[in-house]
Design goal:
This is SDR family oxidoreductase. Keywords: Oxidoreductase. InterPro entries: NAD(P)-bd_dom_sf, SDR_fam, VLCFA-Steroid_DH. The chain is built from 9 helices and 9 strands. The protein has 268 residues and is of the alpha/beta class. It has a single domain, classed as NAD(P)-binding Rossmann-like Domain (Rossmann fold), CATH 3.40.50. Strand 5 (140-145), helix 5 and strand 6 form a beta-alpha-beta unit. Helix 1 crosses helix 8 (214-226), helix 3 (72-82) packs parallel to helix 4 and helix 4 runs parallel beside helix 5. The longest helix is centred in the middle third of the chain and has 29 residues, at 109-137. The relative contact order is 0.11.
């Protein structure tokens, strides 16, 4: 186990959606790199459990903030923490998110709005909250979990995930010369709780070779962020798929339209 004297204290990282899947891996790997942590999630009991484990294993300081980022009052607590000048956040990971199991027209508009707020509005507000201090200090990293789905016209989830891809490209080009980098992580299929929470079997989503481990995805993302890259795409297979998707968007739209017309034909 590392000690305070043997590890170099890199600063404080704030991770949203920090208690499971990709978020938990970010928490663990950033702790191993020497960051103290602020963990944000909705479940206070789970937050405390993860925090205790990290304090014991990595000998880091861990704060917890139980907050629903779609609730303005609770989100403001996180924004205030990001603006702290006495214990500044040097690395922000916007990871919190979820998907909806049904088609856009079958979900309530309120459910769709909450998902959009969590996937796009919350990362925008948290990034804005932390940016001023990072620019004043001349250093900082903002990493937002996007998705390869953001490059495909495949519903509101994909549209929401397109936001961090576009924003991070612009923000990284705009602020990098002032010491602050922005990175969008665009993984494909990752073995986490995400799909099981939707009630979807992994085997029905994609063949086994397309699934990545969260540990590898996060390690690749942190490496890309340390190099100041605007987009992190883990694994060669997904880099190739990303290139194909960008070229094939018109064909994807045509396929979606045809499939929709077929599924909506009257059967009686």
């Amino acid at each position: 186990m590392a000690t305070e004297s043997s590890r170099s204290r890199k600063g404080i990282a704030l991770v949203t959606g920090a208690t499971s899947g990709i978020g938990a891996q970010f928490s663990y790997q950033l702790a191993q790199e020497g960051y103290d942590l602020v963990l944000v999630a909705r479940d206070r009991a789970r937050l405390d459990s993860v925090a205790d484990e990290l304090r014991e294993e990595a000998n880091v300081s861990v704060e917890v903030i139980a907050a629903d980022l779609t609730a303005a009052a609770e989100r403001s607590v996180v924004e205030t923490r990001l603006k702290s000048t006495t214990e500044p956040i040097t690395f922000l990971v916007n990871n919190a998110g979820y998907g909806l199991p049904q088609e856009f027209d079958l979900n309530s508009v309120d459910d769709e709005e909450r998902m959009l707020e969590l996937l796009a509005t919350a990362p925008m507000r948290l990034s804005h909250a932390v940016l001023g201090g990072m620019l004043a200090r001349g250093s900082g990293t903002v990493l937002t979990v996007a998705s390869l789905a953001g490059e495909a016209p495949l519903g509101l989830y994909a549209a929401a995930k397109a936001w961090p891809m576009s924003f991070s490209r612009w923000a990284n080009a705009h602020y990098r010369s002032r010491g602050v980098t922005f990175t969008a992580l665009a993984p494909g299929f990752v073995r986490t709780e995400f799909h099981s929470r939707l009630g979807i079997e992994r085997a029905s989503m994609a063949p086994n070779w397309m699934w990545l481990e969260a540990e590898f995805v996060v390690r690749s993302a942190l490496r890309s962020a340390s190099r100041g890259r605007a987009v992190a795409i883990p694994s060669v297979r997904y880099k190739l798929l990303w290139a194909v998707m960008k070229l094939a968007q018109p064909l994807i739209l045509m396929f979606v339209a045809r499939a929709s017309r077929t599924s909506n034909k009257p059967t009686g």
